[in-house]
Amino acid sequence: xxxxxxxxxxxxxxxxxxxxxxxxxxxxxxxxxxxxxxxxxxxxxxxxxxxxxxxxxxxxxxxxxxxxxxxxxxxxxxxxxxxxxxxxxxxxxxxxxxxxxxxxxxxxxxxxxxxxxxxxxxxxxxxxxxxxxxxxxxxxxxxxxxxxxxxxxxxxxxxxxxxxxxxxxxxxxxxxxxxxxxxxxxxxxxxxxxxxxxxxxxxxxxxxxxxxxxxxxxxxxxxxxxxxxxxxxxxxxxxxxxxxxxxxxxxxxxxxxxxxxxxxxxxxxxxxxxxxxxxxxxxxxxxxxxxxx
Length: 293
Hints:
Distance between the termini: 13 Å
Number of helices: 13
Strand order of the largest sheet: 1-2
Largest sheet: 2 strands, antiparallel
Structural class: mainly alpha
Helix content: over 70%
């Protein structure tokens, strides 16, 4: 038996084993599209992965959502301290931006804004309610008596405008004010509300908050508390509205077959190389065994 007869079988077996595995792996992804001879589709075209891309997308999306990104996993992300800190940090950056404005509050630019209209109406109602709930009679009586004493001391005017007279006037004035507020309150209050909202909308957001909460740490804590309270009440509906499986499946379905091949090979390329080498070794072993058969 010559040296060539000894080397040839293992070498040919290794080449066949390695080559067939390379072809098999290529056929998983290629050709990317179906090939036809006349009206007949060439068998094994397109490749297995492009042909089953939609099924693969569904299985991949479901596997990832079930095993890695379920509802509990998403909920833990949104309620984590790290995520809350990131949200609070971004809000603080927005607040500190000198160009940040509450421009949606400008009644001149957003006349038809439903939320702004609701806000103005609610402010008017609350202001009117506060005026009506106030003890106007007592306020008019106390302030009227003080002003009369300051202006006229104990003179004849003070004698005429005594406590009984002031009390009577206070009753009439308070009733008139309440009646006017009920009748014309909105027309009186609305322009003042719009002026205030207009001023707020044109002020930097940081200045507006400085007037309300001067302490920046207190603002940060307030934002964090609001976020925590919101997530405690609404995190489950939020995560239930996020369908990770469908999102992944949709992404895979729209991927180009070449891009899907590149993505898959980038993940398992080293493992596939080991499979090719192992196939070559097995082919060489089979070839060597044939020498003795």
